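## retry 2 of 3
previous attempt timed out at serialization; input unchanged, resubmitting
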Amino acid sequence: MKTIGEAAAELGVEAHVLRHWEDVGALAVPRDGKGYRMYDDKAVEQARTVLKLRRVGLSLPEVTAAMAPKKSQAQAVVRAKIAELEAEVERRQQAIAFLQHTAECRHRYLDECSDCAAFVREA
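## retry succeeded, writing output
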C-alpha cells in the first residue's frame, strides 16, 4: 500500500493530479479507516493507465469513458480518438507538403505559383 505522495512520485505526477483524477471519476482509490487514500497495486495500475491514456491524447472525460465497464463504450471512445488522430496526421502531412513546396518554389510570391494557389484553395 502506498500513500498518495508515494504513488504520485512513482508515477511522476503531482499528488493533486491524482486527486483530480479521482474527483472526475477517472480513478478509484480505496481509503483506510481514517479516510486516507491508500494506493494498492490495482489503484496504482489504474492511475498508470489513466496517465498513459492522457499521454496519447485523451481528455479526462474520454479517459473516464475509455475505462468504462462496458467494453463497447470503451471501444467507441478509443475508435473516435483514433479517427481524430488520423485526421490530425493527414492535416500535418498536408502542411508539410505545402511548406516543402513553398520552401522549394521558384516563384518569389506564393500567389504567383499555381501549385501554391492550389494548396491555399484546399480546405
